[in-house]
Amino acid sequence: xxxxxxxxxxxxxVEWWLSRIEGDRTRSxxxxxSMACLMRKHVLPRVGKVALxxxxxxxxxxxxVFPMHQELAPRTVQKALQGLRQAFAMAETQxxxxxxxxxxxxxxxxxxxxxxxxxxxxxxxxxxxLVQHLVGVFxxxxxxxxxxxxxxxxxxxxxxxxxxxxGHVSLDERVWVIxxxxxxxxxxxxxxxxxxxxxxxxxxxxxxxAARLKMGWMxxxxxxxxxxxxxxxxxxxxxxxxxxxxHDLRKLMRSSxxxxxxDHMVGELLINHALGVTTETYLTRDAMDRxxxxxxxxxxxxxxxxxxxxxxxxxxxxxxxxxxxxPEAAGDSVVSGISTWGG
Length: 343
What we know:
Elements: H1 10-21, H2 29-47, H3 57-71, H4 74-93, H5 127-140, H6 142-154, H7 158-162, E1 169-170, E2 175-178, E3 189-192, H8 195-207, H9 210-213, H10 229-240, H11 246-257, H12 264-270, H13 277-284, H14 287-304, H15 308-311
Helix pairs in contact: 1-2, 1-4, 2-3, 2-4, 5-6, 6-8, 6-10, 6-11, 12-14
């Protein structure tokens, strides 16, 4: 028997678990929102009323996993099952149920195919046209163009970018500090600001109404709050014409770094991926210098594509981009897969 403490159905356990994670600030806002949406839209309507005593692998396969496979991507089904496992594991740990009917259950019990990563919507051959498009958006409406430009320039995640405050940025010291509370890794992330980005930030500040600057948020909205994640995604859909997402900007930045001679480990450090204690210790001594050099190279590459029309700075080209190592300009030999964005 799995029933205890008022839990009679699978839905009781899931709703209780959601109430716990929705108040758990150690989990990202994106995770909490996406898991709540997934559970309430796809899981609870299918198996929410199943009595706890009837929850087993056969029931899950017949009523949840197999039907979801008919409509959704395998990774979405996997995430739903992971959420269920976490809900029941927490309930068991807190002795709110007598036993866990999902103990030992894995996604591979139901699916044997390969979980392929979602293909990127942007490739390096799209870079020149993308930069020109984003610069055009920024010059027409800085409030709309700043977010995607900052993400492309730094490879940051949308949630941590939206959480930026002017107090996290020093134009004099040329640094942007992302507090650990705002990062997925729960580690403080420090990014050097290049001359290009300093110029971009100054132009952006001049365009932001004084009343909104006083709010402290880099991306303020009416009412004094920072832009919500849902609004950020909506802005990206508008700017991209639904052809790419915020994560595609991050992936494009990361994949482009090798073209300009940035070391793999430095690239991983720039986008705040975990590298392991040994590697991070090795990089600590000159980590900021190597990040700055990498970003200077990347922003010089963006300048070749028209970035300077947004920031207005004249910046010397790094040595790497002056010699024979200069990468082929995006679109020189391959027709871009993107024609227009945002209508």
